[in-house]
Amino acid sequence: MNEGVAYFLGICFSGLTRGSIYALMALGYTLVYGILSLINFAHGEVYMIGAFVGLVFAGLGTILGLGPVANAALALGAAIVWAGAYGFILERVAYRPLRRAPRLAPLITAIGMSLFLREFVILAQTSDFVAFPPLFEALPSLPQGWGEFVLPSELLILCSTLAVLFGLYLLVQHSKMGLAMRSIAQDPEMARLLGIDVDKIISFTFVLGSALAAVGAVLISAQIGQINANIGFIVGIKAFTAAVLGGVGSPGGAALGGLVLGLTESLAAGYLSSDYEDGFAFLVLVLILLFRPAGLVGKNLPEKV
Amino acid sequence: MLELVGVKSGYGPIEALKGIDLQVGEGEIVALIGANGAGKSTCLKTIVGLLRPTAGQVRFCGQDTLGLKPQQLVAQGMSLVPEGRRIFGDLTVGENLGLGAYLTASRAQVQLDLAYVFDLFPILQERQKQRAGTLSGGQQQMLALGRALMGRPKFLLLDEPSLGLAPLIIKEIFAMIQRINREQKTTILLVEQNAHLALKTAQRAYVLESGVLTLQGLAKELLGNKEVQAAYLGLV
Ligand SMILES: Nc1ncnc2c1ncn2[C@@H]1O[C@H](COP(=O)(O)OP(=O)(O)OP(=O)(O)O)[C@@H](O)[C@H]1O
Ligand SMILES: [Mg+2]
Q1: Across residues A232-249, what is the average pLDDT?
Q2: By Cβ atoms counted within 10 A, which residue in A66, B87, B128, B171 is the most buried?
Q3: CATH number of the domain bearing residue A76
């Protein structure tokens, strides 16, 4: 294969891999925003905690002598459950009591929760980077030629993400729970008048978003091989950018926004300089806010306040 | 079916209901009429649990509803079609109706209820896949009614179903309201500014003025009442 083409494809795949994680995270922001018009600023910390839980359980699995598939399943399952529980508690403690408060109040508790969770992990673990157990070692190698531009783990992350996105699409568009979520996004009071337990659906949404964050966290941590207590911050901001890019409140937009942002970063790093990678992410954000404030797929509706 | 005893309610310092006594018997259509801002919507919101009475008692099927949430009262058979219809404009007609059946566990039952609603309002069947926000005002009111019926309520509360609709559509909708009452034995509390229409439709009626009930009686008698004629029917 032509070297230039292989380089380009390699950049695209690493961008899509990274974009997958942004997409999974952005969905958490967007689902919650859609229902509560609230930016859950502690979402990045839920992601970070998911990564740590994955690390602990993957280590445990290794000690117990589990096979690679069982070990990955254990790490993923534990991270999902744990992060889901954090999402549930976060909403109960930090947001629900303030549901009728001025809009600034939940923003402040969100930042407070975010700091608290990060410091908590630093105290309980360490602020240094720790190695994440390799979960993808046992993956079969790819057919001849593919190895020039894509890693098996990248392909796995991309495919898992697409599968999760498809599952989420079915849930939101074709299940009773999804219908209830969409009705609450439009008119929560009317939803209550139809017998929908709005608080329960809101809890479910937080758990769902947190579970998606945990999936992304474990996948990418296993790929990169190390984590620390600060990883949630930068990923959180990037994923928030992706959500805005897609049109905050739109799940399809969040998924698309995540992938587009990952690609953009990767192309910028690959063809310009890796120093500009983060700068490009924010340049994209600024451009979108200037020219398409409603996001890529958002309708240009007046802002919902 | 429903009984209000000395109910006061409002919004913080604003007392919109100043002690209301009202009964609705099983199978009745009762109208509640009054001018703008009289407190009609407040009364309905208090009955369905969106507002908490500051004094007095709301009893539904003999039970005090204090502390029950709207979704619990819906589960017990109440259904409010609020002022302004409040359909979910971004969802399809079919999805709106599906939400009305949120608490119905049996699929077969949902199909039966859907068939009944489509029989009442055939246009909704034609437009099942259409975004509800693109329906005309009259169709939206039909959808709001249909959505409420999907929960098979014992007690239906209607807040100004005639609002903003053309006379012909109003006639059609009110014929359906009477048909629902006749066929399903649904008890109905009907709030209206259009007093003539309400009194023609209901068996009994109450007149609400600035948070106080000033008159009550058989709808026919109120139609002939001088005060009502002067204040609400535009007759002198
Ligand atoms: N959300 C609210 N907050 C504060 N005051 C309110 C609110 N809603 C209604 N009110 C006040 O309560 C009183 C009764 O209002 P309500 O909506 O019950 O009247 P209504 O009889 O339904 O009038 P209309 O025929 O115009 O719908 C009015 O004085 C109104 O200004
Ligand atoms: Mg009203």
Answers
A1: 89
A2: B87
A3: 1.10.3470
Distance CA B73, CA B64 (A): 11
Interface contact A199, partner B, CB < 8 A: no
Q: What atom of ligand 1 comes closest to residue B38's alpha carbon?
A: 21
Q: Tell me the C-alpha to C-alpha distance, in Å, between residue A26 and each of A224, B35, B75.
A: 20, 49, 36
Q: Are B44 and B191 in contact (CB under 8 A)?
A: yes
Disruptive mutation site among B50, B68, B87, B90 for chain A (greatest number of A CBs within 10 Å): B90
Phi then psi for residue A99, to 5 deg, are -60, -30
Same domain, B53 and B143: no
Q: How far is CA B149 from CA A259, A292, B128, B190, in A?
A: 44, 42, 16, 15
A105 touches chain B (CB under 8 A): no
Phi, psi of A291, rounded to the nearest 5 degrees: -100, -30
pTM, whole model, 2 decimals? 0.91
Residues lining ion ligand 2 (Cβ < 5 A) are: B 41, 83
CATH of the domain at B183: 3.40.50.300
Is residue A196 within 8 angstroms of chain B, CB to CB?
Answer: yes
Name every residue whose Cβ is closer than 8 Å to that of residue B226 and which is 6 or more positions away in sequence.
none
CA distance B113 to B146: 9
A10 pLDDT exceeds 60?
Answer: yes
Reported ipTM: the value is 0.93
Measure CB to CB from residue B74 to each of A183, A193, A198 and give the nearest one.
A193
Q: What's the pLDDT tens digit per position in A205-215?
A: 999 999 999 99
Cα distance between residue A266 and residue B209, in whole Å:
68
Residue ranges for chain B with pLDDT beneath 50: none
In this structure, the answer to whether residues B1 and B50 fall within a common structural domain is: yes
What residues in chain B have their Cβ under 8 A from chain A's Cβ atoms?
A: 48, 50, 69-71, 74-75, 79-80, 82, 86, 88-91, 95, 98-100, 102-103, 147, 151
Total domains, chain B: 2
Contact B99 A180 (CB under 8 A): yes
Nearest-10 Cα torsion for B55, B57, B58, B61: 170
Domain that holds residue B191: 1-77+154-236
Say if B82 falls within a structural domain.
Answer: no
Q: Residues 6 or more apart from A214 whose CB is under 8 A from it?
A: A46, A47, A50, A53, A54, A76, A79, A80, A82, A83, A84
**Cβ–Cβ below 8 Å for B151 and A194:** yes
Chain A residue closest in CA terms to B75:
A195
Q: For residue B20, how far is the Cα from the chain centroid?
A: 18
- Verify that B184 and B202 share a domain, yes or no: yes
Q: Is residue B201 part of a domain?
A: yes
